């Protein structure tokens, strides 16, 4: 575990378990120089400490990139989100943590958790902490149901297309959950042609463009298993990002683009909807191949912008109009997309390196002002 720690963090790693429910989970607080630890909570059968630490680090850069004052953190529960015992597992996780970190971490949504789960977390916490991403009826901002992160991913795509004067508008998309389906919806509204999508149940492809309104309707009716209702469009799972397309948007899992397959990407623009979808080695391959990449902590920062609104709404007499949140997401993400493209051009190297160095500058300033030793390798 100690090899996960460097000069930036993590400041704290808390691993917990519960024999009764079989729950195993971890909270990683990466760097709080700019504020209290804030990041979503993930539930997946494969969750590991290493994965949550990497995600917590992404959160440190993400909050700094949008210039909002929270610190990087993430929590993960190693369990199946469709388990009939989900609520018991979730409650056991929160119970184990609530004495440890009520002042250091605010729960939120990530893969496998929904607004109803955030409500359960709040119930279990009582007055000893908080979750955001709760339903409206609890005073929350249900940012996954509103599809704000996916909307922002599509805005980043549209800005990158405009800035780089990319000619094509065909998009290959992985994932059709909270982020993926909303990205598809906004891309469709902006006139893009989504040619592939996927869920864990399979992948669909239509070179002439999938009928997104129909897919969204099927998803509402059948959940993410809707892909099984369209056998004529099915392609091999895992190939959906590598079909003929101009733009590639991974919006499901981490590390899906690595050195073994990066060369098979046909798109000229890759916009990371998921966290950590592209390995560091693959980023270099894509750079050498001339593929423009918009990093995760730039493109999917709609989640943190809405989480910040949700944090404020907890104590405010006013609730923001949802239109205001969408507008803030669009403005911040479009500006950051332009800035990262310009900085990448100025510095050379990968766009991840360029975007990270911009974020690191802000974190470093905060560390300095707090009298902390500065990372020497940054
Ligand atoms: N929610 C948010 O606000 C934010 C999320 N993110 C990141 O976006 C990514 C997606 O999160 P989110 O949409 O919230 O998660 P969800 O759980 O809502 O959706 C995940 C999607 O990925 C699909 N999926 C799972 N396994 C595979 C697979 N092997 N191949 C193809 N698709 C698969 C799921 O299908 P199925 O339903 O069938 O399992 C589902 O459609 C994650 O990396 C997350 O960290 C980043 C910023 C904010
Ligand atoms: O902070 C949150 O609650 C949601 C945002 C998040 O976890 C992310 O951007 O990965």
Automatic annotation (TrEMBL):
SMART domains: ELFV_dehydrog (SM00839)
Span of domain Glutamate/phenylalanine/leucine/valine/L-tryptophan dehydrogenase C-terminal: 140-371
PANTHER family: GLUTAMATE DEHYDROGENASE, GLUTAMATE DEHYDROGENASE 1, MITOCHONDRIAL
SUPFAM superfamilies assigned: Aminoacid dehydrogenase-like, N-terminal domain (SSF53223), NAD(P)-binding Rossmann-fold domains (SSF51735)
Binding residue positions for NAD(+): 149
Residues the record marks as active site: 74 (proton donor)
The name this protein goes by in its record: Glutamate dehydrogenase
Residues bound to substrate: 38, 62
Pfam families registered for this protein in UniProt: ELFV_dehydrog, ELFV_dehydrog_N
Family: Belongs to the Glu/Leu/Phe/Val dehydrogenases family.
Keywords: NAD, Nucleotide-binding, Oxidoreductase
Leader sequence segment: none
Species of origin: Arthrobacter yangruifuii
Annotated site residue numbers, Important for catalysis: 110
Molecular function terms, GO-annotated: glutamate dehydrogenase (NAD+) activity; nucleotide binding
One annotated GO biological process: L-glutamate catabolic process
């Amino acid at each position: 575990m100690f090899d996960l720690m460097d000069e930036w963090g993590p400041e704290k790693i808390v691993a917990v378990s519960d024999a009764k429910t079989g729950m195993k989970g971890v909270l990683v607080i990466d760097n709080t120089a700019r504020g209290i630890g804030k990041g979503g909570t993930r539930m997946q059968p494969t969750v590991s400490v290493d994965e949550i630490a990497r995600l917590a680090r992404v959160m440190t850069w993400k909050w700094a990139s949008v210039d909002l004052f929270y610190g990087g953190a993430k929590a993960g529960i190693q369990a199946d989100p469709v388990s009939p015992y989900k609520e018991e597992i979730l409650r056991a996780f929160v119970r184990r943590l609530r004495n440890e970190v009520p002042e250091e971490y605010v729960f939120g949504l990530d893969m496998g958790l929904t607004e109803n789960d955030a409500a359960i977390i709040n119930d279990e916490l009582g007055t000893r902490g908080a979750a955001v991403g709760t339903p409206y009826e609890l005073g929350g901002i249900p940012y996954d149901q509103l599809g704000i992160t996916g909307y922002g991913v599509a805005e980043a795509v549209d800005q990158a297309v405009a800035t780089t004067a990319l000619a094509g508008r065909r998009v290959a998309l992985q994932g059709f959950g909270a982020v993926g389906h909303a990205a598809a919806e906004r891309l469709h509204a902006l006139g893009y042609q989504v040619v592939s999508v996927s869920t864990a149940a399979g992948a669909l492809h239509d070179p002439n463009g999938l009928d997104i309104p129909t897919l969204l309707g099927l998803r509402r009716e059948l959940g993410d298993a809707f892909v099984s209702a369209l056998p004529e469009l099915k392609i091999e799972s895992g190939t959906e990002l590598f079909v003929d397309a101009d733009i590639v948007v991974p919006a499901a899992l981490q590390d899906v683009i690595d050195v073994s397959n990066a060369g098979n990407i046909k798109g000229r623009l890759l916009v990371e909807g998921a966290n950590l979808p592209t390995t560091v080695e693959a980023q270099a391959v894509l750079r050498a191949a001339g593929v423009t990449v918009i990093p995760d902590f730039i493109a999917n920062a709609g989640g943190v912008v809405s989480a910040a609104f949700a944090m404020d709404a907890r104590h405010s007499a006013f609730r923001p109009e949802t239109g205001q949140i969408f507008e803030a997401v669009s403005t911040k993400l479009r500006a950051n997309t332009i800035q990262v493209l310009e900085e990448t051009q100025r510095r050379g190297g990968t766009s991840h390196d360029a975007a990270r160095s911009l974020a690191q500058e802000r974190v470093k300033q905060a560390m300095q002002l707090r009298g902390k030793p500065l990372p020497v390798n940054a």
